[in-house]
Design a protein that fits this description.
Blueprint lengths: L1 H19 L2 E6 L4 H16 L9 E6 L4 H14 L3 E5 L1 H10 L5 E6 L18 E5 L4 H11 L5 E6 L4 H16 L3 E6 L6 H6 L7 E4 L3 H5 L1 H10 L4 E3 L11 E5 L1 H16 L10 E2 L3 E6 H6 L6 H6 L2 E3 L2
Parallel strand pairs: 1-2, 1-3, 3-4, 4-5, 5-11, 6-7, 6-8, 8-9, 9-10, 12-13
Antiparallel strand pairs: 10-12
Amino acid sequence: MKKIAIITSIITLCLAGFTHAQSVSITQIIGHPALDSVYKGVVTSLNEAGFTVAKGLKINYQNAQGNPAIATQIAEKFVMDKPDLIIAISTPSAQAVALKTKDIPIIFSAISNPIEAKLMTNLENPTGNITGIMDSPPMDAQINLILEIIPTAKTIGIIYNPTEANSVSMVADFKNLATLKNIKIIEAHATKTDEVATATKTLVGRVDAIYVPLDNTIISEFESVAKVATQEKIPLFAADTDTILRGAAASIGFDYYELGKQTGRMAVKVLQGTPIANIPATRADIIDLVINLKVSQEQGLVIPDAVIKRAKEVLFY
């Protein structure tokens, strides 16, 4: 009987070890603070659930450096590797892997509209091999923030990459809301990071404020936008709260580390055997208001006390 008990214990331990000896491939379109925070959050949640390198978890992390062609190459390599799960951070990365496999489970993160991106047809009941966490920005809150701080604003400039499906969708929503408030929108386009500064300069003298949506191309080169905005004293707002440290006067949006942790908890479900079909796509659930008073002053902006009191974080540097 003792032998049977010992053998049973050994089998149980082996099976437990096997549960954690799994592989996760993570693809990210470009490096910038928000997406980097998502990755860190994913790893945190995996570790908290017991999926660690020490217990055999293999994580293959790849960054496409903003190049869709490299994102496709990464996707192809991932499919050849046959990991237990692929996590795609950003729309281009998710689109690349979704085109290459219909079998390996995929979880996306930091995507505002997976239906517009043709990744899913039903958010509540996934029909394919993909689901994830959406960062659909609170557009009404963002435009209301701009108007609360600058009640005389009549024209807002938006800089984005028109080849990024997420950005096109977000800008359309923002423009619809702006129309209802009699606000004119002037667009500036940049399809590559080295076009961002030039695109920003086209807005000088034409807008009362500049708004940057959750656009990976623009946010990765955000300092170029901030430099022009500060030099020309144009208030700069952004959907990515991490930009408050990079030249934005104010931002209302998501905590991307927490969004990453949400994504990681979803990944844990898949690694524990839950089918993708049983995991609805969900939205990020933590929204923060952050303000940088030093930057605001440099951009000729006075933040009302009522806004400052509501802010989760107020910076003076």
